[in-house]
Amino acid sequence: MAKYKPRLAVRALILDQDRLLLVNAYPGARLGLWCAPGGGCEAGQSLPENLAREVHEETGLSIAVGPLALVNEFHDPATGFHQVELFFRCSLTAGELDPAWTDPEGVVTQRRFFSRGELASGAVTFKPGSLPGAAWGTGAALYDPLEVILK
User: How far is 144 from 125, CA to CA, in rounded Å?
Assistant: First the structure.
């Protein structure tokens, strides 16, 4: 039996000038891994409320949450950790990226916008692999089956 119950997280796909906002995935930018901003859901808040809170904590930006674009799952076979992530297309409503912004949880220390070309070049390590398709897609939500976590 698994040690953990699946954790639910929400993530924002924010495009600005045809560039996607990503943040470092681990404290101290360990691994150089980038992901969409967001995080774990708290009980008693809707998914959009959780997402707006998480994005503001990590980036200082305010957003409007749009439609679901991607469901992604990942896990760590060694520990049993399992996370289900829901990615929503979002739009900026206020704020600008400020290098001095501090994530109160201390996880996100870097944030920046990436072009499609940068993500396609292979020079940027990001997860999940379907992120560009979800961010720039316009169709139905995508599903990424269970993948092994990078650590």
Answer: 17
What domain range is 28 assigned to?
7-148
Sign (positive or negative) of CA dihedral 66, 69, 70, 71: positive
Residue 2 lies in a domain: no
User: Around Cβ 93, how many Cβ atoms within 10 Å?
Assistant: 10
- Specify if 84 maps to a domain: yes
Pairing of strands 7-16, 38-40: antiparallel
pLDDT value at residue 3: 65
Count up the domains in the chain and report the number: 1
Q: Is 1 a domain residue?
A: no
> In sequence order, which ranges of the chain are alpha helices (DSSP H)?
47-59, 116-120, 131-136
Q: Residue 32 has what pLDDT?
A: 83
Q: Can you tell me which residue has the tokens 């404290």?
A: 27
Report the percentage of the chain scoring pLDDT > 70. 95
Q: What is the pLDDT of residues 17-36, one digit of tens each?
A: 999 999 997 776 667 899 99
